[in-house]
Amino acid sequence: MTTADCMEQLLRSYSGYYDISQQEREPFCAKAEFHSHNEQYVLTRSARISGSDSHEYVYFACTELLTCRNLAELGREAWSRGLANVRPLYGHRNSDITLIVIAGTMEADVSAAARKIRRYKSYCFSLCGWSSFSLIAYSVSTGNFACNSRGRCLKRHFKETFKISS
């Protein structure tokens, strides 16, 4: 399976819940967005108690060789583009940013470098929400994963999508 085939299969799996745009600027090949609005009210909708908005921005990158330097640059770019979409107003709960990299091969130390990438930002001491960063990279040739602590939950989705046994 090639990196392009993996990316196509992965985008198909995200298309059920996310709005996908493949006209994303370099270094990304696609972007997926998910928006959710939740309200709580008493008896009637006019007696609204609270409302909250959650957002997720997923950036997809495809490369033949993933190095630690490339991973750091992709992470910085995804974080800055994702934060540009955040509007931390009243009712904003969270805006999570995710980077998914499909690589032909990965350098041996990419996994250690991925674990060290942590980004988090709170708005008005979390009264207006927060943003967090998830990262996962998948090597097509070896089937290995590299992820940060928030990206570990994405492994299950990858294993189901690509029918990988553990």
Outline the structure in words:
The protein is 27% helix and 39% strand. It has 166 residues and is α/β, with parallel strands linked by helices. Strands 1, 2, 3, 4, 5, 6 and 7 form a 7-stranded mixed β-sheet that branches. The two termini are 18 Å apart.
List keywords for this structure.
about 170 residues; alpha/beta; 7-stranded mixed β-sheet; 4 helices; about 25% helix; elongated
Could you give the topology of this structure?
Blueprint: H1 3-14, E1 19-21, E2 30-41, E3 48-66, H2 68-84, E4 92-106, H3 110-116, E5 120-122, E6 130-139, E7 145-147, H4 154-161
Parallel strand pairs: 3-4, 4-6
Antiparallel strand pairs: 1-2, 2-3, 5-6, 6-7
Order of helices and strands: HEEEHEHEEEH
Share in β-strands: 35-45%
> What does the average pLDDT come to?
91
Number of helices: 4
| Poorly predicted regions | none
Largest sheet composition: 7 strands, mixed
Q: Count the strands? A: 7
Radius of gyration: 17 Å
Précis, in short:
The chain is of the alpha/beta class and 166 residues long.
